[in-house]
Design brief:
The complex is a heterodimer of chains A (497) and B (499).
Chain A (H helix, E strand, L loop, with lengths): L1 H6 L7 H9 L5 H19 L2 E4 L1 H16 L11 E5 L26 H8 L3 E6 L33 H8 L5 E6 L5 H7 L2 E4 L19 E6 L2 H11 L17 H9 L7 E5 L9 H16 L3 E5 L7 H16 L20 H12 L2 H14 L5 H24 L2 E5 L15 H6 L5 H6 L3 E9 L2 E8 L5 H15 L8
Parallel strand pairs in A: 2-3, 2-4, 7-8, 7-9
Antiparallel strand pairs in A: 1-3, 4-6, 5-6, 5-10, 9-11, 10-11
Helix pairs in contact in A: 3-4, 8-9, 9-17, 11-13, 11-14
Chain B lengths: L7 H7 L1 E11 L38 H13 L3 E2 L6 E4 L9 E4 L6 E10 L2 E14 L3 E5 L11 E5 L6 E7 L9 H19 L11 E10 L9 E6 L2 H20 L7 E5 L6 E6 L9 E2 L10 H9 L5 H12 L3 H9 L3 H9 L4 H19 L10 H12 L5 H12 L5 H7 L8 H14 L1 H8 L6 H11 L6 H11 L5
Parallel strand pairs in B: 11-12
Antiparallel strand pairs in B: 1-9, 1-10, 2-5, 3-4, 3-14, 5-6, 6-9, 7-8, 10-11, 12-13
Helix pairs in contact in B: 3-4, 8-9, 8-10, 9-10, 10-11, 13-15, 13-16, 15-16
The chains are: A alpha/beta (497), B alpha+beta (499).
The complex binds zinc ion (ZN).
Amino acid sequence: MSEMTGMSDFTRMTATEIASLVAGGETSAVEVTQAHLDRIAAVDDRVHAFLHVDTEGALAAARAVDERRAAGEVLGPLAGVPVAVKDVLATRGVPTTVGSKILEGWRPPYDATIVQRLREAGTVMLGKTNMDEFAMGSSTEYSAYGPTHNPWDLSRIPGGSGGGSAAALAAYEAPLAIGSDTGGSIRQPGAVTGTVGAKPTYGGTSRYGLVAFSSSLDTPGPCARNVLDAALLHQVIGGHDPMDSTSIPQPVPDVVAAARLGATGDLTGVRLGIVSEFVGEGAEPGVMAAFRESVDALTKMGADVVEVSCPTFAYALPAYYLIAPSECSSNLARFDGVRFGLRVGDDGNRSLEEVMSLTREAGFGPEVKRRIMIGTYALSSGYYDAYYGQAQKVRTLITRDFNAAFERVDALISPTTPSVAFPMGARTADPYQMYLADLYTIPTNLYGGPGISVPCGLSEGLPVGLQVMAPTMADDRMYRVAAALESAVGTFTPPAL
Amino acid sequence: MTTTLPAYDEVVARFEPVIGLETHVELGTNTKMFCGCPTDFGGEPNTRVCPVCLGLPGSLPVANKAAIEAIIRIGLALNCSIAEWCRFARKNYFYPDMPKNFQISQYDEPICVDGYLDVEVGGETVRIEIERVHLEEDTGKTLHVGGATGRIHGATESLVDYNRAGIPLVEIVTKPITGTGALAPEVAKAYVAELRDVIRTLGVSDVRMEEGSLRCDVNTSLNLPGAEWGTRTETKNVNSLRSVERAVRSEMLRQASVLDVGGRITQETRHFHEDTGDTTPGRSKETATDYRYFPEPDLVPIAPDPAWVAELKAALPELPRVHRRRLQEQWGLSDLDMQSVLNAGAVELIEATVAAGTTPAAARKWWLGELSRRANESGVELAEIGATPAQVAELQGLVDAGKLNDKMARTVLEGVVDGEGSPTEIMTSRGLEVVSDTGALTAAVDEAIAANPAIADKIRSGKVAAVGALVGAVMKTTRGQADAKTLRELILQRLGVQG
Ligand SMILES: [Zn+2]
């Protein structure tokens, strides 16, 4: 019996393995789904990766997959595989809060394009994962519903804003998850939980139904425990969407083939550039050690590694903290209690303006308010040019640095984040320290290209991530490099919960 | 405040007005500006909505290509340059009828710039310079229930209908219009009328002021000759052509009365009142709202292909000014006559009446005569008088067929204006038809001859002019339904006299 349990522990399997078992009729999607629901029931009170578990919806979706298979339909490559979805994506009839009190109880009347694609692909949505409120944060401590704990050490943060999705993977509650990356919210949680997180090219994945934080930066993307699974998920959710004007009308590069190619461990002729600015004093020694070892591994596989200076990356953080709050101050204006979500003070005596104001006062947390105020200020007449306008110029310069770098190398690499998972509460009182967690991931968002974080080692028993950044619409390149590194260093398993 | 307003002539003798117009036109596209919802007018509240036009979290706009084509055609018709690259911008402010609490509009990169529109006022051509034409989305409509003011403050309930939210709206802004002096109100009206005609000709909007598909804000200021421009006010709620003229005039008079006593004009929004013809202050703009414009990050820039723009330009229809010149020639009118047709707003009405088979002269007679008089009396636009070109043509047809004489036709027309039905129906229901039954008429004539033997003798003896008295007598007994000419001949015939 114990042997049987080991063999059928679906929660430890890769998405590829699960899909193959389901497709071959060796197990059912319902069994797989139930195993994950059981795992969630067993550990999530300690991890708190989920804000909402859609037990009935998941089982119904799983049954539908099993029926389709029984009817002889050819299933897609991820059919029957459970997926955890960051609570930033609208899910029809399923609560969507964005980690905020202001959307408590809101059940969207529509599905985000990505969610729709997940359903069509036969994946099984387990539920919605925790996140920093409106994706603003790097530790998931700013969730209005309580923090998520890092499965590697429950006293530490799982990264953010997508800490829930990353923790769900690391805690074996789901084999796949969806995140969204505005300044590193997929990659940084991936790095500190020892999982893979990919930010696709901006416009390569649809934002329709993604509750906006910063429209010009937000990029939904795949999270997984290995590179190939991430690529398979990327392939399913990516591609042009006519509902999103900023979506690129081109097919997704073949990221799955690239991941398979990378897994062969051959990087002959691939030119990689280490971003000089990101391997200086800012990173923890343990992080740098793991990174250096990985660079050696990449070199051994045939990659031609050089250092590339991108001087304007130093201005990425300040530019980001003007652009993102500016856009958020406008995007979040719609949360006023009039049409959906929380409404406070509507007692029949107060004016509409007072109700809107009280609703926003009660519904938004302090970090969200801070950014709305920064953004409102930055867009004000008389300040626009000095702040928002200037930040956009920096963005152009950063893009130039990327373009220049990609003339010399195929992809850039750096540590994903300067430190390993920090203890909960360590940075909540100091926003600037919190912002530094995204120091290495933000330039990619400002440029719009793809970036992936892949586990590259441990530092004091905690995972370290390596980031690969590629030119826009060359997502396949980063998958190849990431898969190669994975083939060299392996995957990392957290201690048992 | 009860101030005696100065006389208009005095005001324009002492002050120079500067006016400017901002006109909003709802486009008649099938779907909204940024989503696929229908734009038809009059649906039940909140039945023409989707996640996008409700601004639900996560929804995104996609620009309607038909709307972009329509605005480019408007820009071309207004002689504007079309931007090769421009962006939408967000205009941020909180208001419940705006689903996202920002409006997608255009700011410093409008799609059409630097155009002009020539209008005719008093026989002169006035060139109105167009600063910009841009595209934006309309807001919903809020109904504040309860409370004394109907405004947000004091209302017990506010209801919002988002059917209109997201309907494409074109804003056309003139440059300041100077040097029009006493004609300023007329120029304003002529501009809006011409703009409406141009847009209607393009077929991109039904431009109905009363339904709000064409809305106009009028800026007015006064300055002493040679001095800097005065502080301007913006008058809203100007819902008819006539109101445009009245609003400018009333605001000129009001501002003069303030300036005359050493007062200062407040920069503010004012509301025009159709009933009283004057304006009252709205929200003060002294503390200007900061709309925090920035480029809309959810939409890609608009970059119309120059070849496509050239195609649209080549395919523009004949514009009203050219069209009018052609009609003037066809109708054989002098400039002065054409001007009176224009002033009466009768061009299209006459054109349609002629198209329905009436001669230009007859069509012009009805529209500029009887119908214009009625329109003036009841203070409505000629087009809204209640008679259609088809009805006028039908009426003239009855006259031409000899079934109605001129006087009867006027009576029938009154019935048409009062909504009693078609001319033929009214003729029948009111029993108004030329008596052509010779038997009945002959009897009436013989009766009149018998009743007036002295007059009959006079006529017989050669004083034919006396026939008028007998004609009058018969007319009386037949209640005017006989044709005077026929009647005269019949009387002479019965008396054996040559006419
Ligand atoms: Zn809609």
